[in-house]
From TrEMBL:
InterPro entries: ADH-like_N (IPR013154), ER (IPR020843), GroES-like_sf (IPR011032), NAD(P)-bd_dom_sf (IPR036291), Zinc-ADH_QOR/CCCR (IPR051603)
Pfam families linked: ADH_N, ADH_zinc_N_2
Sorted UniProt keywords: NADP
Protein name: NADP-dependent oxidoreductase
Organism: Nocardia albiluteola
Matching CDD domains: MDR_like_2 (cd05289)
Domain Enoyl reductase (ER) positions: 10-297
Length: 300
């Protein structure tokens, strides 16, 4: 099979499409003929040598496609089913991928729309689970217009929470359309939040990693009411929980998202698609910033 890989660290130019052996599913896993695979910031962090030291490395943790091989004990899907989910070995940007956690693709989604979901919705749901968000609470999302932030907003609204979301002025209407009350980030953010919530908020989620953890702690009434997914150093400095995938993943969201999507309560747009051969260009676009929605590789 063909797959995206790099054999040295560097810029997008180190990415190549190579021929690798076909993978096969283990017990409880399925293999899919990949039709689309999500692209994430972790991909270029890996490519630049900021995450893992070993070489070479393949890429991709989320994909959607058609089941073409079943692992032992799999009874919940059949050959030919459309599914999406996580590739545990990080090789989803390929013609074939083995999924360790998966679910049926919601009927209204195409493959690209389904491949955009797993990483964003799992990260958002995991953080909200760790915060213990319940109906009636007020949540502040710092960075509410990106993929993970917008997912967190929609999940929180679906739980019956009030949500305040920080974003640039150009994205305020987007944040409002998701069900949150937008405020501008930057200097004076805390004061603007208190104009909407004079007593502060119950919980805060930092998605943007913009150095505002002290303000979030003050607004939420303590470090135990704040989770960050983006600021490792700040979390260590201020005693805030940093949400990691290895601390218990919220894979249950794969099976739950369909109902929200089909009822019109959740949307995660695909910003742009690229053929697998253009993975380097996808990295260039993603690293340049300013993308609203997910970047997705498509495989014919």
């Amino acid at each position: 099979m063909q797959a995206a890989r790099f054999s040295r660290f560097g810029g997008p130019e180190v990415l190549e499409i190579v021929e690798l052996p076909d993978p096969h599913p283990g017990p409880g896993q399925v293999r899919i003929a990949v039709r689309a695979a999500g692209v994430n910031a972790s991909d270029w962090k890996k490519r630049r040598g900021l995450m893992d030291e070993e070489l070479p490395q393949t890429l991709g943790y989320e994909a959607a496609g058609v089941v073409d091989e079943l692992g032992a004990g799999v009874r919940d899907v059949a050959l030919g089913d459309r599914v999406f989910g996580f590739a545990a070995d990080g090789s989803a940007q390929a013609e074939l991928a083995v999924l360790s956690h998966y679910a049926p693709i919601p009927p209204s989604l195409d493959f690209a729309g389904a491949a955009a979901l797993p990483a964003a919705i799992e990260t958002a749901m995991r953080a909200l689970d760790q915060l213990g968000l319940v109906a009636g609470g007020t949540l502040l999302v710092n960075g509410a217009s990106g993929s993970v932030g917008s997912a967190a907003v929609q999940f929180a609204v679906a739980r019956g929470a009030r949500v305040i979301g920080t974003a640039g002025p150009a994205n305020h209407e987007v944040v409002r359309s998701l069900g949150a009350e937008p405020v501008a980030y930057g200097e004076g953010m805390a004061a603007r939040v208190r104009e909407l919530a004079p007593a502060g908020v119950d919980l805060a989620l930092d998605v943007a990693g913009s150095g505002v953890l002290p303000e979030l702690i003050e607004l939420a009434g303590g470090k135990g009411h704040v989770v960050t997914i983006a600021d490792v150093a700040g979390a260590q400095e201020h005693g805030v929980r940093f949400s990691r995938g290895d601390s218990g993943r919220a894979t249950h969201v794969l099976g739950e998202i369909g109902e929200l999507i089909e009822s019109g309560r959740f949307v995660l747009p695909v910003a742009q698609t690229f053929p697998l051969a253009d993975v380097a260009q996808a990295h260039r676009v993603g690293e340049a910033g300013g993308v609203r929605g997910k970047l997705v590789l498509v495989i014919d």
